[in-house]
Amino acid sequence: MLKLSMKALVCAVSLSVAGVLHAADSESTAPISIKFAHVVADNTPKGQGALLFKKLAEERLPGRVKVEVYPNSSLFGDGKEMEALLLGDVQLLAPSLAKFEHYAKPLQIFDLPFLFDNMEAVDRFQGSEQGKALLTSMEGKGITGLAYWHNGLKQLSANKAMREPKDARGLKFRVQASAVLDEQFKVLRAAPRKMSFAEVYQGLQTGVVNGTENTWSNYFSQKVHEVQPFFTASDHGLIDYMVITNTKFWNGLPDDVRSELQKIMVEVTAEVNRQADDLNKEARASIVKAGTSEIIELTPQEREQWREAMRPVWKKFEKDIGADLIKAAEASNQAQ
Fold it and tell me: Which residues form the signal peptide (predicted)?
């Protein structure tokens, strides 16, 4: 009986070990799951970029990587996505640059109003030594920046025509959770209201806020033109994104996988940034065609009035951001 029992035990242990090895083998061959969450629609620069990243990653790393894309705050909204990244519940995000002030103060530079004259200046700064250094400025807090993705320059919208800075007085503007953007509207004697992107349409429709700021592609994709009768073509600020990942997750990837994903990110970034301008032009044309809103074009003199009205914001945040960094960004307006 003892011999039979020992034989049965050895058999059972062998089967158990085989099962563990099989499970370990299955685990090692399972694809790496990458959840890419964002808060905008698929037909925006960010939305298109996320889908292209998924396509190329799964094509070039077949069976090794699986990318799931969650648009329109369908996985995590504005208020929860950063926490989710740090907890490992999502692996890739592309938040607006306005979302990073609590992680690295110098990144507030991208919210300063009227800092960049055009997107070419933005490209020059982001591609500079100072711009690239900002991508790694949050690694001490567990966040690695992989790329800058363009959305475009911001325009103002409101339930009344705004041609001069004084026209904004007393209005309630939706803003992202950013101290710089708060101050931007306070210097105009307007009232900033923090609100998640997913709530903007309803907030404008119900009068919780009277206006906002965004790019043409975001306005059109969220149908803001249906609830805002006036847009001011101000090009006053930047909405760009930083594609970020959890530092521990990224550094823990197999070297060859990480290297290939980096190459894909470079390729996708070039395509996103190429498409962004076209998408904004198309969106603006679609808003005009809809006929629901008037677009107010500013003269150079009128735009300068807005610029001067908002310049005190630069001074207020100069210490946090760094005077040298602001000078470098301003210098990018001059083509080399």
Answer: 1-23
